[in-house]
Design a protein that fits this description.
Number of domains: 1
Distance between the termini: 54 Å
Order of helices and strands: HEEEHEHEEHEEH
Largest sheet: 8 strands, mixed
Number of helices: 5
CATH topology: L-fuculose-1-phosphate Aldolase
Number of strands: 8
Structural class: alpha+beta
CATH superfamily: Class II aldolase/adducin N-terminal domain
Shape: globular
CATH architecture: 3-Layer(aba) Sandwich
Radius of gyration: 16 Å
Length: about 200
């Protein structure tokens, strides 16, 4: 397993999403992490503590979807591999710390979700074809034991999550998709919706 080579195309995808997130200020102070599925049994995940705006091939490590994880991977790798195990249709997962996601995840932590209603941007999300209706983005309490946290998240969202993403209280947003392009679209869509929700609340005060 340690000798498994991350395909160059996936390394390019991970470097590109890192630059995109860094350009938007979404991965401050080496925060965030990204991954791509390699095959049915492995994923490529960014290492811990690296500059996400300058991801190099050596900053990416192949991990098994079952079994012990190698040293040096992000502490949040269990949150990635649990999603890949649960849903074979997922090809990429992104995690960033935007202000809107981080603040709203704290404000609505007790309720357990952020409710987004009536925005055209709903249609950026998988399977949504209209602005009519409500999107509920789940919120989970953060936990430094990420293996335990991953189990709790999967137990709640199950096989059909209400959205292609979730929030960790005080710790940003996770989003995923069949490809990295899909994951990025979901991330952009969710972040726009969260910014709108946060701004609406500010204006209503």
């Amino acid at each position: 397993m340690p000798d498994l080579v991350v395909p160059a195309s996936l390394a390019l995808d991970l470097a590109a999403i890192g630059r995109f997130a860094a350009a938007h200020g979404w991965v401050p102070a080496t925060s965030g992490n990204f991954s791509c599925r390699i095959d049915a049994a492995h994923a490529a995940v960014t290492r811990s503590g690296i500059d996400k705006g300058n991801i190099r091939p050596e900053d990416i490590i192949a991990v098994p979807l079952r079994g012990a994880l190698p040293a040096g991977v992000s502490a949040e790798t269990p949150l990635h591999v649990s999603r890949y195990r649960r849903d074979p249709g997922i090809g990429a997962i992104v995690h960033v710390l935007t202000i809107a996601a981080t603040v709203l995840s704290r404000l609505d932590a007790t309720r357990g979700y952020v409710e987004l209603e009536g925005f055209e941007m709903h249609k950026s999300l998988r399977g949504v074809t209209t602005h009519e209706g409500t999107v509920r983005l789940p919120i989970f309490a953060n936990d430094q034991d990420t293996g335990r946290l991953a189990e709790r998240i999967e137990a709640v969202i199950g096989d059909e999550p209400p959205a292609p993403g979730y929030l960790l209280a005080g710790h940003g947003v996770y989003a995923w998709g069949a490809t990295m392009a899909d994951a990025q679209r979901h991330l952009e869509g969710l972040e726009f919706l969260l910014q709108c929700s946060l701004e609406e609340r500010r204006l209503r005060r």
